[in-house]
Amino acid sequence: MDRRHAREDARLSADEVEALYERIVLMYAQQLIFFIMRCTKNMADAEDIVQDALLNAYHALDRYTLLQVRSLRIHAWLYKITWNVYLNHVQRTKPPPGVSLNTPEGELLLDLDADTHDEQPEIIFERFELRQELQQLVDALPESYRVVIDLYYFGDLSQQEIANVLQRPLNTVKTQMRRGLQMLRKELQAREEESIR
Prior knowledge:
There is one protein chain. Mean pLDDT is 78; it is low at 95-117. The longest helix is centred in the N-terminal third of the chain and has 27 residues, at 14-40. The termini are far apart. By secondary structure, the chain is mainly α. The chain is built from 9 helices and no strands. It has helices at 3-9, 14-40, 43-63, 66-71, 74-92, 121-139, 143-154, 159-166, 170-196.
């Protein structure tokens, strides 16, 4: 076996694990927190779940070889770990009696576009209101549809990656996405008709 193959089969050094972990936390922690926040409706729980998920990822990286790390689709891998930690959390705790559709004070589930500094305040506010309304509509969907739509549109995962994360058949994910979008369209249409009256 040559030196290159030996290196690829070797585990990462402690410094390499630390550096990779720091990059992962910087790139994905906030995105994962927002995703879990939409599931739990509780920022403290979301932060705890993501912290546990990131620790699980760190321990996994410590066991991986260089070749395994290179072949990892880190984005989808992190969502899968986070989703599993969330499911464990749900099994350990009782769901709250009611779920508020409002976001906590000061928390933005969707960031505004980066190029908004030249826009008029009215346009920025209108876009923010539209995004909040859309997020509330998504939050009101049944969980199986909401999670799929969250992962696809807000988590930027492919349908196949969502199927892997949720451990569901790809056709089930496609069906849930289609039905969830139909429900959103129907609700938006009802709201439009109501505002016309």
